[in-house]
Amino acid sequence: MDTTPEQPGSAAAPDGGGSRPRVVVGVDGSPGSRAALVHALITAARRGADLDVVSSYAIELYYLGGAPLDVPDLTGVRDDTHDRVTDLVEEVRVESAVASVPGIADVTVRLVVSEGPAVQALVDRAEGAELLVIGSRGRGAMRSALLGSVALHCATHAPCPVLVVHPVPAGSTPSGRVVVGVDGSPASREALAAAVAEAGRTGAEVEAVASYAIADTWTDLSTVIQPTAEAVRDELRARTEQAVAEVLAARPADAGPAPKVRTEVLEGPAGNVLVTAARGADLLVVGSRGHGALRGLLLGSVALHCAMHAPCPVLVVHPDGARPIGPPTAR
């Protein structure tokens, strides 16, 4: 596995000349970013991709009542950040969980160190990439939150799918299960296709989960005609199974054997249902927006809830053609 440094000034210009796909990961020395780096290296090997490891540093100048400005040694800061990223990559790449992955030796790692906000560096670098991998919390001011500001803004604004990696308890082993939320929306169809593709790479089983909630209205129920819970479940199951069949039929001929897909129809709010279903799973896949009342947001309420609370890595998939609009503003 080669490690190639980026030249200064080229951090925001992704390398589009190679024939291999790219995975991008953000690191800042936090435990969350270390876990993200492990996932990113393994994922790049499984996808036959190269890896861009991105780290940024921010320089703040202070003016104190007539005293001269203290300008930091920018070259020294950049070099120190680069050395720390290099050491982290070398440390992670020899771990048994990484070194034993087939294809890991073929992954070319590019180190990208840039000055400025982490969000902007990551979103810029993700242009044309297959996947952006980030830890759920980093070293920023929001590191104690359930979902850090960098993770939130990347999941909202990145031009490619975003994998949010949560800390995994020590001793955890892969379960061979990928959970995906399905609600019939274009985003959930893309999520289902992504879940099937990921399961195909890892040999996992896909659990396609649809949810429903019986309306609780403040009215005389004798005047309201509602379908029975059984009828709702049957309809949802039929639609979910149809979506699964269509996605499996659309898989490329060279994609290999199709993974096993089973469907679950569960009662409750979609976010809570998916987080519960994801317990013990290797991955939870969600569309960035669904059929909920907040579907007009760049990141839907269900996707946000899952990215915040899921007990496993969460892959947020934007529907094809629905590119996020507007630059990120987090610093």
Brief rundown of the structure:
This protein has 331 residues and is α/β, with parallel strands linked by helices.
Note the topology:
Layout: E1 3-5, E2 22-26, H1 31-47, E3 50-57, H2 74-93, H3 96-99, E4 109-115, H4 118-125, E5 131-135, H5 149-157, E6 162-165, E7 177-181, H6 186-202, E8 205-212, H7 229-249, E9 261-267, H8 270-277, E10 283-287, H9 301-309, E11 314-317
Parallel strand pairs: 1-4, 2-3, 2-5, 3-4, 5-6, 7-8, 7-10, 8-9, 10-11
Antiparallel strand pairs: 6-11
Give an overview in words.
The protein has 331 residues and is of the alpha/beta class. It is built from nine helices and eleven strands. The chain has helices at residues 31-47, 74-93, 96-99, 118-125, 149-157, 186-202, 229-249, 270-277, 301-309, and strands at 3-5, 22-26, 50-57, 109-115, 131-135, 162-165, 177-181, 205-212, 261-267, 283-287, 314-317. Strands 1-4-3-2-5-6-11-10-7-8-9 form an eleven-stranded mixed β-sheet, with helices on both faces. Helix 6 (186-202) links the parallel strand 7 and strand 8. Helix 1 (31-47) crosses helix 2, helix 4 runs parallel beside helix 5 and helix 6 (186-202) packs across helix 7 (229-249). 43% of the residues are buried.
